[in-house]
């Protein structure tokens, strides 16, 4: 999965024009509205959990990027979203084929 996005930070002089796809469930939208970013380069556990619950969907990624999350943001271990998505896909594939 590759994301192409810019920051919404006015200090950077860029503004994302990427549309935010609506989520299908109203409660999901309300839940997301309650979560907030700690910083554009900080991959917070709450944000990561939300993205994982939605299986790294395009819509969830677009939402957080338009909220200001950088695609290069890192968690406390230095892992980016791409690394987490790869691990999730690898684990899913291993589980399908009975490789644990």
Please describe what this structure looks like.
The structure is a single chain. With 100 residues, the protein is mainly α. The protein has one domain. It has four helices and no strands. It has helices at residues 26-34, 45-53, 58-66, 81-96. The longest helix has 16 residues, at 81-96. Mean pLDDT is 74; it is low at 1-27.
- Tell me the series of helices and strands, N- to C-terminal: HHHH
Overall tally of structural domains: 1
Mean pLDDT: 74
Helix content: 40-55%
What ranges have pLDDT less than 50 throughout 5 or more consecutive residues?
Answer: 1-27
User: Any idea what the shape is?
Assistant: elongated
* Largest pleated sheet: none
Write the layout of secondary structure elements.
Blueprint: H1 26-34, H2 45-53, H3 58-66, H4 81-96
List keywords for this structure.
single chain, 100 residues, mainly alpha, 4 helices, disordered N terminus
Write a brief structural summary.
The chain has helices at residues 26-34, 45-53, 58-66, 81-96. By secondary structure, it is mainly alpha-helical.
């Amino acid at each position: 999965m590759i994301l192409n996005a810019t920051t919404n930070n006015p200090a950077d002089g860029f503004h994302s024009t990427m549309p935010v796809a609506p989520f299908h469930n109203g409660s999901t939208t309300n839940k997301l509205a309650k979560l907030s970013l700690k910083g554009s380069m900080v991959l917070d556990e709450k944000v990561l959990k939300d993205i994982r619950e939605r299986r790294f969907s395009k819509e969830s990624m677009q939402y957080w990027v338009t909220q200001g999350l950088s695609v290069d943001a890192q968690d406390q271990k230095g892992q980016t979203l791409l690394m987490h998505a790869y691990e999730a896909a690898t684990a899913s594939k291993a589980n399908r084929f009975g490789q644990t």
